[in-house]
Amino acid sequence: MEKILQILLVVILSATKFLTAPITSLNIGFGYLETLVITTCGGLFGVFFFYYLSAIIMAFIGKFTSKFQGNSKPQKKRVFTWKNKFIVKIKREYGLIGLAAITPTFLSIPVGTFLAARYFSDQKKVLTYLAASVVVWSVIVSSVVIIF
After folding, report:
1. Does 10 map to a domain?
2. pTM here?
3. Count of structural domains, the chain
4. What would the pLDDT profile of 127-145 be if each residue is shown by its tens digit?
5. Is residue 65 part of a domain?
């Protein structure tokens, strides 16, 4: 039972804050291959879960804001932070591949998946690139952690 809870902890970490999952997995006592499989499965679960959840959230927001569209007040001027500028730069210069490449480690899977679902319409391509990114980063991060 304790082993199942440890696996569940690593899966949840992989689905949300991917970079910490291999470190936690190896500290718990899992081997390299176990860490690789668990973090990859958790990351893939997170990508699919948050992709479909973001679609539901965007649909809800669309319905909610359409009710108030007629009585809209003048919009406030948007404030661009360094994070917003970074995301826009990645989207414009590198596209979906760039966003997928930085999602597991730098943005986190929930944020990156939401942005990919929001800005790119080809569902099959988005999910493929995000899944490939999770697999590649799982190998890289797990290997680096096991070496050092």
Report:
1. yes
2. 0.84
3. 1
4. 999 999 999 999 999 999 9
5. no
